[in-house]
Write a structure and sequence with these properties.
Length: 329
């Protein structure tokens, strides 16, 4: 009979994480039924609720309080321990999840940082932050796959590993922790990071003609943010090809503005359309190459996102570059 491995492998840990996401999603769905009106009033800022819930769920249950087991890990009979076999303290467990939180909630954490420290809000520092998130992601995934003890970057920071329940053996773990294999896993992680940097530089070089466009669209986004009641605005220029009535390929280009409006305002049809019209006027009056475009599309979404569960519905209005609404038949 084949002996069971002490250290839990990549795929079983992935299944565990997926199950925890499902459990948290079900809990989020239940909360949304109980606090539907509250979540609609909070809108997308509810992501912080989800962040707090996942911190408490993961941090507490995977510490000594929960004997190193979230619900999924309890179901699969695996647990998070320190290398010596003891449970993680609450502080170490929270530190361990912080790495995952930065990966999962990266854009919202960046938004919070820039709101407190406005000097961070520039493209160079934002690029560094994005690279940092990718390095963290690779540090979790690559090390989990190649490290002899299947320890991700979050495990190294917390001094943890994941083993089968009741099977921790310090002597066997020490035997498995071969220095050359540990070194190889970090080399592979470093190589992946280097490939990411080189690939990003190549992509940016290919997209350098888009930089003037981004520089022009960003001030337009800020104008919409300052002069309308929309939130979480993004703007882009889109090129696409479609088939004409005779089967011939035709090209179109549009300016697409994606926005969010809290439900109480969204449900006021007059207010919603007035804000849409303001956004259209800003685009048509501010974008210097508007004559090269065929349409201006404004998408307004509403709903809520609490990080572990979300609900949305949306409306899209299409306008000519003169600001006239196009009525779809």
């Amino acid at each position: 009979m084949k002996e069971k491995k002490i250290v839990v492998g990549f795929w079983l840990r992935l299944i565990s994480d997926i199950l925890d996401v499902i459990f948290l999603g079900l809990f989020g769905a239940l909360l949304s039924l109980l606090f539907n009106r509250l979540f609609f009033s909070i809108g997308e800022d509810g992501l912080w609720i989800g962040l707090c819930i996942t911190f408490l769920y993961t941090g507490i249950l995977q510490s000594n309080i929960g004997q190193g087991q979230s619900l999924a890990k309890r179901l699969l009979k695996i647990q998070v321990l320190r290398l010596d076999g003891s449970y993680l303290s609450l502080q170490r467990s929270f530190l361990r999840y912080t790495v995952i939180a930065f990966i999962c909630y990266n854009s919202w954490i960046w938004l919070a940082l820039t709101s407190v420290l406005p000097f961070l809000n520039n493209p160079f520092l934002q690029s560094i932050y994005i690279y940092g998130i990718f390095f963290l992601l690779l540090g979790v995934v690559v090390l989990l796959a190649f490290h002899p003890l299947k320890r991700g970057l979050h495990d190294f920071l917390a001094g943890s590993l994941v083993v089968r329940k009741g099977m921790h053996d310090s002597e066997k773990i020490s035997f498995l922790n071969v220095p050359s294999k540990v070194k190889r896993s970090f080399i592979i992680w470093g190589a992946c990071c280097l490939i990411l940097i080189i690939g990003s530089c190549y992509f940016l070089q290919k997209q350098k003609d888009q930089i003037p466009l981004l520089k022009e669209l960003n001030p337009i986004r800020k104008q919409i943010e300052e002069n309308t009641q929309f939130e979480n605005i993004s703007i882009r220029r889109t090129w696409y090809t479609y088939r004409g009535t005779r089967g011939t390929a035709k090209k179109r280009t549009s300016i697409d503005v994606l926005t969010f409006l809290k439900k109480a305002k969204y449900d006021n049809a007059g207010l919603r359309f007035a804000e849409i019209k303001k956004a259209v006027d800003i685009v048509t009056n501010s974008y210097s190459n508007i004559d090269e475009c065929d349409y201006v599309n404004i998408q307004v979404r509403t709903g809520f996102n609490i990080g572990i569960f979300s609900y949305y519905y949306r409306q899209v209005k299409r306008f000519t570059t003169d600001g006239e609404l196009i009525t779809r038949k």
